[in-house]
Design goal:
- There is one protein chain.
- This protein has 81 residues and is of the alpha+beta class.
- The longest helix has 14 residues, at 13-26.
- 28% of the residues lie in helices and 23% in strands.
- The protein is globular.
- A four-stranded antiparallel beta sheet has the order 2-3-1-4, covered by helices on one side.
- The mean pLDDT is 85.
- It starts with a strand and ends with a strand.
- The chain is built from two helices and four strands.
């Protein structure tokens, strides 16, 4: 079993929360995605920083290109590992 993780980058907290909610509806997930503020953003205001949605995909079932297209609907992107 591998430790595959996907990092989805979103422009704001609202988009990240929407993506985290929608992921469960669109994809079969083993666990709930985590939403976190990008610690490297260096912004004082958390609302202006990028937000990350972290997914574990130990079975390797999630298609990276499908995730790219999905997160693009919220003007986000998937970071390559």
């Amino acid at each position: 079993m591998s430790d595959v993780r996907h990092v989805l980058v979103l422009p704001d907290r609202e988009a990240a929360e929407e993506v985290a909610d929608a992921l469960g509806e669109r994809f079969a997930l083993d666990e709930e995605p985590r939403t976190v503020r990008d610690e490297l953003a260096g912004e004082d205001d958390a609302e202006d920083a990028q937000w990350l949605v972290l997914l574990r995909d130990e079975a390797g079932r999630l298609d990276p290109q499908e995730l790219d297209a999905f997160v693009g609907e919220w003007e986000g992107w998937r970071e390559e590992p």
